[in-house]
Specification:
CATH superfamily of the largest domain: Gnk2 domain, C-X8-C-X2-C motif
CATH topology of the largest domain: Killer Toxin P4, Chain A
Number of domains: 2
Number of strands: 11
Strand content: 25-35%
Shape: elongated
Oligomer: single chain
CATH architecture of the largest domain: 2-Layer Sandwich
């Protein structure tokens, strides 16, 4: 199950949707910003399409892409982040899928973010590079409760993953991760696994191996 915090609003997702994390299925979550709208055929739409195409090519080699296209008032800023353990081909597929899906789910919105299990894609008409974005936190948790043995003795192996967008400094990355790790008790206390996902960083732990090694 999951929930997300967007200022004072709370959103709930069904367990069925959370299980569909493969390409072509439902994303983990998406949010459409209120920074403005654009019209079909506008310069902003053209810049956004060019930006998404650029990020889908830039992200796979290093699992991260960052770029702005155009000039104000039609400048579009964007980033793509792939999980560091996924193949380059899967990274590209995920970013392309995210670009197609975000246009369907946030039509004509100048700003939006979409998360998949393998990647996230963010675009905006507002410059955000190098800044921690903690306006939204998505909580996902394993429905199984941790056993007393796991809680008290730590006898079970736990797998974990943390990641920041690469435009953050090392100190801001740590600050971002500290912030989301502090939120784990709200969503994942006494659970066998869980994660907190934000626009700038994410943290996940599970009892099973979920990373590709």
């Amino acid at each position: 199950m999951s929930c997300s915090r967007i200022t004072s609003s709370v959103y709930l997702l069904t367990l069925a949707s959370l299980l569909q994390t493969a390409f072509g299925a439902e994303p983990l979550f998406r949010t459409c910003s209120n920074t403005g709208n654009f019209s079909a055929g506008s310069p902003y739409e053209a810049n956004l399409k060019q930006l998404t195409e650029y990020l889908s090519n830039q992200a796979p080699p290093s699992w991260f892409g960052l770029r702005s296209i155009g000039q104000n008032p039609n400048q579009a800023y964007g980033l793509a982040l792939c999980r560091g353990d996924v193949r380059s081909a899967d990274c590209k597929t995920c970013v392309v899928e995210a670009g197609n899906e975000i246009r369907k789910r946030c039509p004509y919105k100048k700003g939006a973010i979409i998360w998949y299990d393998y990647c996230l894609l963010k675009h905006s008409n507002m410059e955000f590079f190098g800044k921690i974005d903690n306006q939204i936190a998505i909580y996902l948790w394993n429905p199984n409760n941790a056993s007393g043995e796991m809680e008290v003795y730590g006898a079970v192996k736990i797998y974990g993953l943390t990641q920041c967008t690469q435009d953050l400094s090392s100190s801001d990355c740590k600050k971002c991760l500290d912030g989301i790790i502090e939120q784990l008790p709200r969503c994942c206390d006494k659970k066998e696994g869980g994660r907190v996902i934000g626009p700038s960083c994410n943290f996940r732990f599970e009892r099973y191996r979920f990373v590709n090694t």
